[in-house]
Design goal:
Blueprint: H1 7-14, E1 19-23, H2 30-37, E2 42-45, H3 49-57, H4 59-65, E3 70-73, H5 81-91, E4 98-102, H6 105-116, E5 120-124, H7 130-135, H8 142-148, H9 153-156, H10 161-181, H11 186-197, H12 206-213, H13 217-229, E6 233-236, E7 252-255, H14 258-264, H15 279-297, E8 304-308, E9 314-322, E10 325-331, H16 343-351, E11 359-362, E12 369-370, E13 373-377, H17 381-385
Helix pairs in contact: 3-4, 5-6, 8-14
Length: 386
């Protein structure tokens, strides 16, 4: 098992709360992490049909059959257990009794909000980060990262990325999500997902997608929300503050797993990556999600944004350090540094003193500093936010 940075936060929360809840995409390593950190806990998978039936038929008796300490995997499958867990931990407030995992946020969030508020620490585990892979002695080139992605199974087995994402899409996105949404037109749903991947790193405009797909904007908004709640995509908000200019308030779209995005684009090898018309968006996606992983693995709120005004001045990523400091980041997929990469960042400094000098994150090895703006290789994205 590759060591996960979030382990420190997981151990910390288990000493503070009677329940710890680990959320995140399917196959991101939640179960492996929970078992590794809490080997003394009994493990119970609610994906198992017989066990799930037992839990649904008699929740109280079920919990007596599996006394603490225990790991309940995919707890959103039987959310009614949460109210019974609440009763137990209210009587015995010992920390670390229950470790819960879940991969579908709405069902889990609703149960946690209603039953376990104040009783559980919550962590979000995304697939492996570049930092975690490097710590394990695994270092790839830019296009290999983008093609292969970061699912732990790809590094624990000899499974080909193309096969993993094909199966992931067919078993989870096509079947599970379709059932959740009661999608009647599977072709329209698949078209929607593939059109989303063609807009990675761009502003979300559902009205335009609605016209292309022939499905109402309201329905597409619902589909998008479920894709986000299931950790397939995430939306990066625009940082909005009155800097004397009209700022765009839309959100930008990214895929939680860059490898899935590459597969959806029909990319079949690392060699195709740099030739793809959407290479820039794929690279930006990888850097943004790497920043997100670093923040979540540190137990912090993301505090990540982008900024764009009506005149086209933009920062691909803005990290809010505090109320008085913003770090703007320009993301470039090229391997050759160019002073012109700094232009937008220098203009931002003139808009507001809140903007720090900032960084250019790119694929090159040189790390010069130009007018206070530092060039950083994408593998060191986490250092920018540290």
């Amino acid at each position: 098992m590759i060591a996960r940075q979030i382990e420190t936060q997981l151990r910390k929360l288990a000493k503070m709360y009677p329940v710890v809840t680990i959320t995140g995409p399917r196959q991101s390593g939640k179960t492996t992490l929970a078992k590794a950190v809490f080997p003394e806990h009994r493990y119970v998978s609610l994906e198992n049909f017989d066990i799930r039936q037992m839990a649904q038929a008699d929740p109280k008796g079920f919990l007596k059959s599996f006394p603490v300490p225990v790991i309940f995997d995919e707890i959103q499958r039987v959310p009614e257990l949460l109210s019974y867990i609440q009763t137990i931990v209210d009587q015995d407030k010992s920390c670390g009794q229950y470790i819960l995992t879940g991969s579908h946020q709405p069902l889990l969030n609703e149960g946690v909000t209603q039953s376990l508020a104040g009783r559980t620490g919550i962590l979000r585990l995304l697939p492996l980060s570049i930092t975690e892979l490097r710590s394990a002695g695994i270092e790839l080139e830019r296009d290999q990262y983008l093609y292969q992605g970061f699912m732990p199974r790809l590094y624990d087995t000899e499974l080909d990325a193309k096969n993993l994402y094909r199966d992931y899409f067919s078993t989870y996105v096509e079947k599970d999500l379709r059932l959740m949404l009661n999608v009647k037109d599977l072709n329209a749903f698949e078209m929607f997902i593939k059109m989303l991947v063609g807009r990675v790193g761009q502003l979300i405009k559902l009205s335009a997608l609605s016209n292309d797909i022939g499905v109402s904007s309201q329905t597409l908004s619902q589909w998008l929300s479920v894709l986000e709640a299931s950790f397939i995509i995430f939306r990066l908000p625009c940082y909005f503050e009155n800097f004397g200019k009209r700022l765009v308030k839309s959100q930008k779209l990214y895929f939680t797993e860059p490898g899935l995005a590459a597969w959806l684009l029909g990319i079949n090898s690392p060699e195709q990556i740099s030739r793809d018309p959407l290479f820039g968006g794929l690279f930006e996606n990888m850097v943004v999600v790497e920043a997100l992983k670093h923040r979540l693995n540190s137990g912090e709120m993301p505090e990540l944004y982008f900024m764009r005004d009506s005149q086209g001045l933009e920062a691909d990523l803005v990290f809010r350090v505090n109320h008085d400091a913003l770090i703007p980041i320009e993301i470039k997929g090229g391997m050759t540094w160019n002073k012109d990469f700094c232009k937008n960042l220098l203009k931002l400094q003139k808009i507001s003193p809140k903007f720090d000098n900032g960084y250019v994150v790119y694929a090159g090895e040189l790390t010069p500093e130009v007018d206070g703006i530092k060039f950083v290789n994408f593998k060191d994205t986490a250092s920018v936010l540290s």
